Every structure is written in C-alpha cells, then in structure tokens.
Amino acid sequence: MTDRPTGEPLVRLSGVNKWFGDLHVLQDIDLTIDRGEVVVVIGPSGSGKSTLCRAINRLEAIQDGEITIDGTRLPDEGKELARLRSDVGMVFQSFNLFAHKTVLQNVTLGPTTVRKQPKAEAERRARELLDRVGVGAQADKVPAQLSGGQQQRVAIARALAMDPKVMLFDEPTSALDPEMINEVLEVMTALAHDGMTMVVVTHEMGFARRAANRVVFMDAGRIVESATPETFFTHPTSDRAKDFLSKILNH
Amino acid sequence: MTDRPTGEPLVRLSGVNKWFGDLHVLQDIDLTIDRGEVVVVIGPSGSGKSTLCRAINRLEAIQDGEITIDGTRLPDEGKELARLRSDVGMVFQSFNLFAHKTVLQNVTLGPTTVRKQPKAEAERRARELLDRVGVGAQADKVPAQLSGGQQQRVAIARALAMDPKVMLFDEPTSALDPEMINEVLEVMTALAHDGMTMVVVTHEMGFARRAANRVVFMDAGRIVESATPETFFTHPTSDRAKDFLSKILNH
Amino acid sequence: GCSSDAGNQAEDAADNSAAVETDAEFEAGTTMAELNEAGAITIGTKYDQPGFGLLDPSGTPEGFDVEIGKIIAAKLGIPEDGITFVETVSANREPFIQNGQADIVVATYTINDKRKEVVDFAGPYYEAGQDIMVAAGNPLGIAGPEDLAGKNVCSVEGSTPAENIRTNYPEATLTLFDVYSKCADALTNGQVDAVTTDNVILTGLVAGNPEGFELVGNPFTEEPYGIGLAKGDQEFRDFINDTLEESFEDGSWADAWDATAGAISGTEAPEPPAVDRY
Amino acid sequence: MQFFVDNFPLLREAFLKTLSLSVLAGLLALVLGTVLAAFRVSPITPLRGLATFYVETFRNTPLTVVFFFIIFGLPQIDFAVGFFTGSVLAVGLYTAAFVCEAVRSGINAVSPGQAEAARAIGLTFGQSLREVVLPQAFRTVVPPLGNVLIAMVKNTSIAAGFAVTELTASLQRLSNANGGDILLVLAAVVAGYMLITLPAAYVVGRVERRVAILR
Amino acid sequence: MSAPVLFDLPGPRARARIRVATVIGALLVVAIVAFVLVRLGRNGQLDPQRWSVLFDPNSGVPQALWQALLRTLRVAAVGMVFATIFGLLLAVGRLSDHRVVRVAVTTVIEFFRAIPLLVVIFALYFVLPSFGIRLSTYAALTIGLVLYNMAVLAEIFRAGILSVDRGQSEAAYGIGLRKAQVMRLVLLPQAVRRMLPVLVAQLVVLLKDSSLGFIIGYFELLRQARSLVEFFTPRFGNEYTFQLYVAAGLIYIIVNVLLSQLAKYIERRSRRSPKTAATHAVDLTDLPSATGQTSI
Ligand SMILES: Nc1ncnc2c1ncn2[C@@H]1O[C@H](COP(=O)(O)OP(=O)(O)OP(=O)(O)O)[C@@H](O)[C@H]1O
Ligand SMILES: Nc1ncnc2c1ncn2[C@@H]1O[C@H](COP(=O)(O)OP(=O)(O)OP(=O)(O)O)[C@@H](O)[C@H]1O
Ligand SMILES: [Mg+2]
Ligand SMILES: [Mg+2]
C-alpha cells in the first residue's frame, strides 16, 4: 500500500508518559504505526485515548519518552512543529470547523497559508476533496448551515487538503445524530481502503471490524491489548477488555 | 400489573396540534398509553419527539387538542398543574440535576417542598431510591462530581421520589459515554419490569426490543407507525420508517 | 414660531472693538516686538465669568477681560483676528504663563504675593471685592460675612473667596461647586442661603434675576484684578501698565466696561484703579 | 511628607466622603436594581416597559447629566434635595440600571433546563424561583455585579462638581493651593481610590470563588 | 416563542391576572408622568417660549449645540479607534507566552481600571505640564478616554478570545498554522464578531464619558450647554437653564440609542448572513465574564 521501501514505521511512540498534575494519563506507551496501517483505539472514558491522539499532534506536550513521525522527532515548537503538524491530519469529535469561514475557505486555509499554494489551485483541489467526501454542493455555505454529518465530512476534507502522512480521528461520530453516523463512517472506510495511515478513536465496533488492521485497547493510561479486530473481538485476553466489550456490545 | 380495575388509559392525547411560529411540530397526534405500558418513541431528528414528551408535562403548551392524565385534563396553570406534574416524572437528555445541591438534596427537594414530607422520611426514601439505581454511595456529592451515567441515574431517582404515575424519558442516554449507556438502560429496564408506565424517546433499539410494549415512529410531527417492537423492526410498513431503520441499524 | 427672548436679544446685539495701532514700533528683542512681528497673541481668559469672560453661543469669548485683552493687543498692533483666546481655569493660570501657553492672562486674576512668586502682574485694571448675594428681600437678614455663621453659603471649589470664608469665617457652611451658575441655581432652589464671590460676578448673576436675587453690597475684601505675564519681563509689564493707564485716560477702558459688565449689571463704569508698578 | 501632615484631615474627610457615598449609593443601586430586574423579567408589560425605559435612559445618559437632573431638576418638580443626598441618589439611580442588567443576565444564565426540571417535579413558580433559579443566579451574578459596583466607586468622582467634597474635589482644591506638590496630591487621591477599588476587587474575587458552582 | 426560563407558560387565569396587572401598571406609569408634567407646568417649565430657544437660530443655541455634538462625536470617534487598537494589542499581550510582557500589560490594564477617568483626565491636563508635556484640552480628553477605555476593551477582547471554543485554535494548529496566524486568522475574527455588542456598549460608555471633559474645559456637549446657561443667566436668569440641560441630556440619549440600534442592526444582519451566523454575537448573558469587564 505504500511505495516507499523503508521499513521504518510512520509513527513511533516509545516510553511516552504524561501527567495532568498528579494524574498519570499516559503510562509508558509504546506504539508503532506502519504506513497504510489503520489502528482503532478503544477503551473506557478517561483511559487516555484522546490524550494519546493529541500527543501525536503535540496538542498536548508529553513529559517523558519520544514520538517520531516518519523518522523525525516531534519538534517542541516554532516553524518545525507547525510543519510537522501539517503532515498529521486531525479530525475532532466536535468538528471544529472555522465558524467564520465558508466550507471552501475552511479547506483552502491550510494549503494557502501553510503550503503557500496559489489560491486557484488550492480551490480546485478543495472542490475535488469536497466532492470526494460528498459535500461538493455545500462549498459556499458556512458550517452552521450544515448538518453534523456534513460538517464532519468537511473536517475530513480539510485535513486531507494538507496531504497528511497520517490522519488522527478522535471519536469522529460520537457527536452525530444516529442517522448521520454512517455517512461519516463510509468516508472513513473509503479512506482506509485507499491506503491512508489512520489512528481512529471510536466506539463504532462495526467500523473497527470492517476497516481496522489492528485494535488497541487502552485502560487507565496504558495500552492493555493490541491485536487484530478478529482476535480482539472474539478472544480478548484481559479482564478489562472483556468487561468493556460486554458493556459496550450488549445494547 | 395495575391494581386499578378501570379501563381508562393513563395518558391520552387526542387531536393534539402544536406550532412553533409557522412550524407545525405536532400534527393531529392521537395517542393513548395504558397503565404499565412502555412506549418507545423513535424518529429522525426534528420530528417532534421531544416536543411530544414535553407537551405531556405541559413544559410546552399545545394550541389545539386535549391531553388527559389518569382521566384529568392537563390543567393550564397554577397549583393544579404543579400537582399533576408531580405525578409525571421526567428525565432529560442533559440530566438537569440542580447544580447547587447535593445528590441527596436533589432527590429530597420535591418530596419535602411539594409533598411536604418530613425531611428525615424524605431522606430515608431518597437513600433507598439512590441505592436502587446504584448510586447510594454518591449521596453527598454534587452533580458535577459524578459521571454522566451516575448523574442520569440520580435524575431517575429524583423523578421516582415523587411516586409518579408515568415517567417520561427524553433521550436519556444520548449524552452518555458508551460504557455508561448500559447502566442507565438497565435501571430503566428494571423499572419497566416493575410495571412503571413509561414513555421513552431513544435511539437504543436494543432497549426498545427488550423493554417496550409498543414502538411509535414519528416523522415531521406525525405519528407514522405504532406497533409492537417485533412487528416494527421486522416489518415496518412506511417508507420513512424503513429508510430510518436502514440508516440507524447497519452500523 | 421659533422666536425666543434670547433670539430676539441676540439680533439687537451691538458690536465694538478697539482701534488697532497700525504703525506700532518696538525696540528689537522685546516681547512687544516679537508679538508685533508675529501679528499674533495668545490671551488666557476664563470662559465662565459672566461680564468678564464668557463664550457667547457662537463660541466667541466676550466680557470685560476680553476687551482689556483686545485693547492690549491693539496697542501691540495685532488685529482682532490675530488674537487667540484660550481658556484658563483657576488652577492653570500660572502654568500657562510659565510654560508660554499664554502670552498674557486676563482672567479675573487677583494679584497676591503668593502668585507674584511665580508670575508678574500688570495692573490692576479693576478693583473687585468679595461680596454676598442672597435671595431677594434678604429673608435671613445677611448683612456681611459675620452673618454667614450657621448659614449655607455657596462658592466655587479652589477659589480665593471660598478659601477666605473657610479660614476667616469657619462657622459658615461651605457648599462648593465648580461654577457659579450652579450656585445661582442652588440659591433659586433654596438649597443654599447665600452665594459669595467677587462682587462683579455676583452683579452679573443678580442682573439676570433681579426678582430672585439681591446683592448685600458690602464688599469685605479687596481683589485687585491684574494681568498675568511671565516673571521678569519688566519691559512688557511696563508696556501693559502704560497701555492700561492710557485706556483709563482716553475712555476706552470705560467703553469696554459699558459694553460688557456694565451692560449686564446696568452700572456705570467706576473710577479706574491706580496701576501698581511694584 | 509635610504636605501629607498638613492635609491629612482634608484627605481623610474626602476619603470618608467617597467611601460613604459609595456605600450608600451601592445599597440603593442593589435594591433598586434588583427590583428593576424583577420588573424586566416579569410578564407584566407596563412594568417591563417601565424597567426597560429606565435602564435604557440611564444607561445612555452621562452620569453628569443625571447629577444635573437630580440636583437642579428635581426642584423643578418641587423636590429639592441636599447635595450629599442628591449625589447618593444620582450615583445610586444611575448604577441601578447596570445592576439591573447584571442581575437579569444572571437570571438568564441559569440554564432553562434547571427551571424545567424544577417545574417537572411539581415545584410551583415561587418554589422553583426560591429553590433553584435564584440561588444559581446569585452565583453567576457576583462577578459582573462586583465590577459594576467597583466602577461605581470610580464614578462617585463626578460628585466633585456638585458640592460634595470627596476625593476628586480635594484633588482640585489641593492642586489649586499646592501647585508645586501637585504630583503628591495626585498620588494621594489615586491611592485613596485604590484603597477602595483594589480590596473590593479582591473581595469580589474571593466571593466569586467561594460561591462558584461546579459545572 | 420558546418557553420562558423563569415562568411557566401562562394559562388563562395567569393571563387574566397579567391583564389586570398590566392595566394597573399602565395607570401607575401614566400617573407618574402626569405628576411630573403638572409640577413642571406649575413651575412654568413647560412655557413654549422657554423651549423655543432650542430651535431659534437667532439665539445661536441650535448651532452651538450642533457644533458641540460634533466635537463630542469627534473625541468619541478618535478615542474609540485608538482605544480599540490598543485594547486589541493589550489583550494579545496579556495572553502572551512571555511572562514579562504579560506582567507589564496586566499592570497597565489594572492600573487604569482602578482609578477614575476624571482623575486620569485631570492628571493629563494639569499634572503632565510639570513634566514639560503640554496637551491641548482636546488631546488630554482624547488620550484620557483612550487610556481608560483601552484597558476596559483589552479585558473585553481577552474574554472574547478566550470564549472562542478551544477546538477552533486546536483545529488551526492541527493544519499547521503558527501562533500568530491562529490569532490573526481564526481567533480574532471570531472574537471581534462576538464582542461587537459589548464593543458598542463600550462605545456608548466612551461617548458618555467624553462629558468628563468639563473638568479641563473642553467644549463638548455638556460643557457647551453649561456655557450657554452661563451666557444666558445674567441676561434672563434661569429662564433656559432646565431646557438647555434637558436638551443636552436628550441629545446624549438619542445619539446613544441610535448607536445601540446600529449595533443591534449589525448584529441582526450578521445573524441573518450565514457567514457569521455561527459566530453569532453573544448575548451579554452568555458571557458573564465579559459583562463584568465593561465599565459603566
Ligand atoms: N486538560 C486536562 N487537564 C487535566 N486533566 C485532563 C485534561 N484533559 C484530560 N484530562 C484527564 O485525563 C484523563 C484522560 O483523558 P482523555 O480525554 O484522554 O480520555 P479519553 O479516553 O479520551 O476519554 P473519553 O472517552 O471520555 O473521551 C481523564 O481522566 C481526564 O479527566
Ligand atoms: N422552542 C422552540 N422554538 C422553535 N422551534 C422549536 C422549538 N423547539 C423545537 N423546535 C422545532 O420543532 C421541531 C421538533 O423539535 P423536537 O425537539 O421535538 O424534535 P426531536 O424529534 O426531539 O429531535 P431530536 O431527535 O433532534 O431531539 C424541530 O424542527 C425544532 O427545530
Ligand atoms: Mg476522548
Ligand atoms: Mg429531542
């Protein structure tokens, strides 16, 4: 799925630790994500899934350990950090579209200001991406005029516009009305099949089974299990995972 | 399940119409709910489910038609309305626990001020109810210190403390983290099995199948279908219901 | 239907101005020469002293002080449109002179020793005296400052008359506003029993409301009004003193009075004071 | 130093005037403002109209103009008031408009769900107001109210122009009399105001933290 | 339309009670107005001749008030522009990562928020000259208004910036924008739009505060009205005093109400325009922390 011959993983976390005050939210996390791999992260609320995601983008600083992306250590600040971040697409639970800009402007802002693409080219490409996620017709509306599902698809297009090496999704469907969840999951599934490297925090087990190469189960700041969806859903090894699956699957 | 021999339904809506400005949100609603019956209301966003629930409690006034509870026409105002409301328990999507009171005070406020129960008795009963919904240990915390699932269970206890004849639930689990949904649904299922009359707006189809006597499907302010869960989920008759179910069930 | 007493009176208003000395000559290097050369002078005056310095509705200053200023300017060969009037309030008269923000200050400016330490005075060009104004008929029988004991007397915060009452007649209750017009209103409303300040100002207030106010007419201080100028500019001071004396002689001083304070109060021009060349 | 020794009595008097003016006007503003807020949220149109008119009028009028009307306008309807009383009235009436808005915003900030939940368990209007809405409104209202009252303390300076010898009046008097020490005069007066505003701000902060509701 | 927060939806009896109270309330209002008018009439204050001075061009009054209004507006407009600019800079400064900047900016803001504007203006005009800095009355008043209001506005803007959902800045960082870009392209545009009503409220305050120019003798509206009173007093006594002050008060109210209406209009338009619908101007009530910042 990747044309680069290197065996180096795209994202590597080693010995990562993070505290919020006294709270040890990430504990000795080691995780590598290969090119084209789709990793689904699940776990109970407060287990540190969001923090993990945000740490990879350095929206949260870590206190210990190392995170590298495509072999580069995550810089601490400044231009290099901004450049690296633009290689990592992020999609949030609450969409976070820029409320004062149109859909099209949301998608072109990054390419024009960060990548210094000419406006016309950025817009052409943006329209392409909006079509791809199925909201091409909404390009000139503002986020508030869109349904939640449409907004989230725009957010995906916005992230894709930067040609990211890896995409992070933090519970992308949990703020959506039930009827809209599928339209977003379909876009994500298509992305996965196109070979995008993805880290997805979600409670949608259907998506995990369908699209993930690997499921990572977190609890209390630790990675407790890491396995293929097959193995994880049928034979979870830890008690916490068993317990969690029983809670989440039987309704 | 009821010891009263009367055949009169507990809640009856006949020819109910409501507009918000030009928007006709409830259109000729006829609905009767018998004692001990559990009715699940489903339908797409904006179809009027919440408004229906709120009308039964007269949190929204209706412009046309009649609503009776236990044979009494819903009073328009004043003490009688307050008295009738205390017979109708309501559980909101966003919990709405009184933020400045402890869990125990939340539950005793109604009985002591409305029913004029002595404080000690109200507290004894409140602790009983809190134990019953599984949050007895949290009695002296304030709502903000509780997880969403715990808060919603307190809200149920608060409603139960008034010994209501019927309980209304408006999407009680949709603001909850997935692992907490079950703990709330379990409490609701237990209530249903104990013979409580319930109207539940929810997207949890598992609960509908498990606990409902009847499923009511609303669309654009109308009741489009009303059937047993069996029939509704396996053989929906209307196209809207089929479409809705396909969207909501396949993920 | 838009006519008012004020409008009608404005229409009859007369106009007067001093004759400009067109061929004035001054010794080079003096202040007079500089001002004459520039054809411009900045005069500080008050904008809230009826009869002495007040803005008319069009924003032009008028009053006795203003006329005195014009007489001096004319003598310097400066036409009226070369005069810039700036408002000086009690608190900034000395700074304005010291900083050169005003060439001279003609602003009901009482000559006293403390002020002489920082500025020089020409004149006096008028002798005022602190007096008392009461409601018409003088219901409380106030004949002089001694009678103010226990009474509520109004003046302006930071003014010499107020300070005088405070130190010499401590039994009087002082009510201090920032302008005398408020004192007049307060007296009309019965909120104070009397108003005290220099008689010329009180005369103006009485003139406006002869049925309401009357002057006790018993001045109990001497307030020689001088013209403030930069300390040490002896030539300029002499020049102004000469100019004043000349105006006393040739009647322009009396004309100025008649056109301003005199017109308001209906009083004849008094005897001019003796200039004090200290 | 000599300057302070000489003028201490005047400065102390002036400071106490500012303080008492602030306290009395503050009390008036709190009481009247709360009543107005009740009017503004009431269903009775003329009361709402009256309160709205009041708030709009006072909010859009400079305090100095309010002073004029209280001190020199009231006598025109045969109510003459003393100058200190008049100043308390002027500052109090003016501030009441802002107190009203702060209280109203506090009431509006209580989430509608809270009042609905109260009604849903059968509390009557009075009960839900007393038990649920007002206790929460009070907590949100503390910071804006505190700021309004602190701003009010600064606004009392306008009374200087209306026969009240408070701090700003003493600034005018002393700077006329002590031209050379004008900076000292200024420092003393500024310190006088800060002696009221800074502790007030501190107290507001403390109260705010104490009554804050966990959300 | 929506259910009121405080009150239950009124039923027929409540509606009847409200109607009765409405009548009583209306009578009360009418009674107050009538009382005031009767008393004013008895004191001769309603005499048309006394009011006509306000409209009689021969008296010079309308022109004088108009010119003074222009001066007031000029001070307010210039003051507002600079107060806004400096307010924005201070707000950004107070959110800076550098401690030194933060502390310095905070000190400036807190200082000017702690002392009365009247004292600031007084100091600029009467105290600065002893340090060799001489300001005209116009400059002193304008600078005073700027210093005081920039401090207030800085706090308003800060509250506005902080009120923008954190997700907005995170999303902006996420696509690789840098701190200054995030502030300029994402946070400030939304903060300013949200703060518009508070901003206009502050403009009203600033306009009102220009009347404090009286202490240094700047001829703004109120000082002009007083000057007219002083001019007429020796000639007509207090014949026009009440009328002139009423006129000044009414002009302030009219101008300020127009300003507030303008703000409401802009807000409504921006609500309708989908472009800003999402960043709709927040009601003051949504932002207790921001309401707390406005001066009064
Ligand atoms: N900014 C913060 N300051 C302090 N504690 C925080 C902060 N953000 C998160 N936490 C705490 O860190 C822990 C992990 O949070 P995180 O959001 O990563 O969990 P999560 O697995 O994403 O949970 P959820 O499923 O609820 O989103 C939680 O206990 C949370 O309360
Ligand atoms: N207070 C209100 N004012 C105006 N319109 C309203 C109000 N409340 C609800 N509506 C409108 O009435 C319609 C029905 O709303 P309702 O909340 O009952 O739908 P719902 O079925 O509960 O939707 P959801 O699943 O999103 O909760 C919607 O179009 C909504 O926008
Ligand atoms: Mg999370
Ligand atoms: Mg709903």
UniProtKB/TrEMBL annotation, chains A, B:
Q: Name one GO cellular component term.
A: plasma membrane
- EC class: translocase
Q: Which UniProt keywords apply?
A: Amino-acid transport, ATP-binding, Cell membrane, Membrane, Nucleotide-binding, Transport
Q: Where in the cell is it found?
A: Cell membrane
GO MF:
ATP binding; ATP hydrolysis activity; ATPase-coupled polar amino acid-transporter activity
Major site of localization recorded for this protein: membrane
Q: What is its EC number?
A: 7.4.2.1
* ATP-binding among keywords: yes
Quickly give the catalysed reaction: a polar amino acid(out) + ATP + H2O = a polar amino acid(in) + ADP + phosphate + H(+)
Gene3D superfamilies linked to this entry: P-loop containing nucleotide triphosphate hydrolases (3.40.50.300)
Q: Which PANTHER family match?
A: AMINO ACID IMPORT ATP-BINDING PROTEIN (PTHR43166), GLUTAMATE_ASPARTATE IMPORT ATP-BINDING PROTEIN GLTL (PTHR43166:SF9)
Name it. ABC-type polar-amino-acid transporter
- This chain's source organism reads Modestobacter italicus (strain DSM 44449 / CECT 9708 / BC 501)
TrEMBL record, chain D:
Localization per record: Cell membrane
| TM annotation in the entry | 20-42, 63-84, 182-205
GO cellular component, alphabetical, reads: ATP-binding cassette (ABC) transporter complex
A Pfam family? BPD_transp_1
Which keywords belong to this entry?
Amino-acid transport, Cell membrane, Membrane, Transmembrane, Transmembrane helix, Transport
Biological processes annotated in GO? amino acid transport
Q: Which family does it belong to?
A: Belongs to the binding-protein-dependent transport system permease family. HisMQ subfamily.
Question: What's the protein here called?
Answer: Polar amino acid ABC transporter, inner membrane subunit
What organism is listed for this UniProt entry? Modestobacter italicus (strain DSM 44449 / CECT 9708 / BC 501)
UniProtKB/TrEMBL annotation, chain E:
Cellular component aspect of the GO annotation? ATP-binding cassette (ABC) transporter complex
Q: Which CDD domains match?
A: TM_PBP2
- Residue span(s) of domain ABC transmembrane type-1: 69-263
- Keyword Ion transport assigned: no
The protein's topology relative to the membrane is:
Multi-pass membrane protein
- Which key words are in the record? Cell membrane, Membrane, Transmembrane, Transmembrane helix, Transport
Which BP terms in the Gene Ontology apply to this protein? amino acid transport
Q: Membrane-crossing residues?
A: 20-41, 73-92, 104-126, 138-157, 198-222, 242-263
Q: Name one GO molecular function term.
A: transmembrane transporter activity
Q: Where in the cell is it found?
A: Cell membrane
Q: Into which family does the record put it?
A: Belongs to the binding-protein-dependent transport system permease family.
Sorted alphabetically, which PANTHER family does this protein's record hold? AMINO ACID ABC TRANSPORTER PERMEASE, MEMBRANE COMPONENT OF AMINO ACID ABC TRANSPORTER
Put simply, this protein is called Glutamate transport system permease protein gluD
Native species: Modestobacter italicus (strain DSM 44449 / CECT 9708 / BC 501)
